[in-house]
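User: Fold both of these, please.

Assistant: Here is the first one.
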Amino acid sequence: MYNLEVRDAHTFFVGGENWGFAVWVHNLTPEQCARLEQLYVQKGGTGFSEASARELAQLEALVAKEAAFVKATIPKSGKLNAPIASDSTLVDAYKNLWRPRDVNPGGTIGELLREVESGGPLTHLAKAKGRLQQLLNRVNDTSNPLSAADRAGAERVISDLKDAIRIAEARATHG
């Protein structure tokens, strides 16, 4: 087990393409971590009071709330990073959807869903729509067919973009 803190990132993912998965990491404060550990050790023992149970429930609720938020902001495909592509148009679209400096997982799709969740301005909606159109144009270009792998990756990203845009537009329409 490692104990580390990432500056400016309360919740983040650790993983990579070659892992085949990513691990969700949540930054509780050092005091919260220590107290959570104490409560788990005490749980079931003689020193575990009703007040301790309530405190444990509150800390677990905090972690669960963050987990639910993160789950909601990850594209359904589960990809935190761009698919690997050989087609130059797809590579360009993916570079603009997932940038190396992105702090949060999920690229533009994740950011748009976070904006929906927070109720803030939908600053990534126009970008998502533009990239969706770019991908649709490329997938539908019959004069230069995509490889099966590139098509599958693009279709997954298109599906995620459509879902995120639909959710954002529903919030914009219905508040």
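And the second sequence with its predicted structure:
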Amino acid sequence: MICQFENLVSSKERAILIRTCKPPPHPAITYRHSVNIEALPIFDRLGFECSQRATAAFGLPIKTELPAVMLSRMGPGDYLVRHADNCRQDVSGNWVPNHTPHRDFSAAYYLSDDFEGGELYFPQHNVTVKKQSGLLTIFPSTQHFVHEVKPITKGVFYALLVFMEKVNKDVPTLPYHLD
């Protein structure tokens, strides 16, 4: 299941978060510990709200670890290859844990509109998410939700990324890979 919610971030908050992203040549990811004091409460509110929305949507208690909230900036030519957020394929094609196996759900708040390209694509489900400012997209981090970000062709795209964990790791994430 891929969940979407609209208009969760005000235009003022989006502007503050975008200003927080350092321009090139700085890294394209800005972590919570390096944001300005004006952006910190927005990070925290959106991380908490995201876990509440995910809990309601998936019927599981879900938590956000605040260090797992980050800003992303992508410019022309930038893209993300097909991947899952908590596992990777080994040389035999088997799915194995990656460097972030604790992630159970992934989310992105889209912060900007003045760009072209950058669609979020889930090939297994033939779903394309056209990014629009204020939209929140939440999905399981597993190999059942492999995704990619198509190349940005014009402008700069900004998003607040949130990675969440189930409170009870013994509860399976399934059947969400079937939706």
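Residues 40-58 form the longest helix (19 residues).
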